Amino acid sequence: xxxxxxxxxxxxxxxxxxxxxxxxxxxxxxxxxxxxxxxxxxxxxxxxxxxxxxxxxxxxxxxxxxxxxxxxxxxxxxxxxxxxxxxxxxxxxxxxxxxxxxxxxxxxxxxxxxxxxxxxxxxxxxxxxxxxxxxxxxxxxxxxxxxxxxxxxxxxxxxxxxxxxxxxxxxxxxxxxxxxxxxxxxxxxxxxxxxxxxxxxxxxxxxxxxxxxxxxxxxxxxxxxxxxxxxxxxxxxxxxxxxxxxxxxxxxxxxxxxxxxxxxxxxxxxxxxxxxxxxxxxxxxxxxxxxxxxxxx
Length: 297
Fold this sequence. Notes:
By secondary structure, this protein is an alpha/beta fold. The protein has helices at 12-23, 55-59, 78-101, 137-150, 174-178, 199-211, 229-240, 251-258, 262-266, 274-277, 288-295; strands spanning 3-7, 27-32, 42-46, 51-52, 62-65, 108-114, 126-127, 158-164, 166-168, 193-194, 196-198, 217-221, 227-228, 270-271.
């Protein structure tokens, strides 16, 4: 029976991946600061303190590395920015150093990253994995994060990194925030592209990367059809049965409320998934209506 260790296992993506893997008969454990808190088998770690139960690494045949503080949870003060970056670098460094010492090393590690790599706003140009990084706060975080996880390859471990788009899910993610106000409306111009992926497809993609030994390197984890902010908001409102007003929330109001973080929703990226589809991965929810139908069923 294959043993899979997950960092960030209790999050939106982690719980979905755990459910999938266990349904396939795999044994899953999480790395957690509070291992007793969960019914899930868990090992202790605290990346901030540089502490980890080394037995976790010996136990694992493969690792799924999803840990990192949420980028949209709190306003980006200088302290919060430091937390966002450090949570990614410290956890990756702790894993690397512990694996380096381990007698038994995992065969593969699947890491999360983000399409934020390309910058807040790349307009309507189709973006591929080989495109350069952006030059804003989030792009800088993702570039450093990927540099930290790239080091796993030095240990001769097959490493796959997914640049994840906007995750659509029942349990949370972007839609929950978009549909919070009493009336749904586009943000800014509403024309900015959103490269989205349905949570079930993302969980299956991560599992696919574990099982397919030919996969390594960086892949965009986005669905086949990016849509504008206006289209996504309007369709989601229809499925939710919520009023939609086709007047964009002004940029200045968003910047007033969110500060620098507003750039994340005012910009957009039209990202290609050609590379992962080229490996034979098939999307079950590549159509937005299918995904929204599943979410609001």
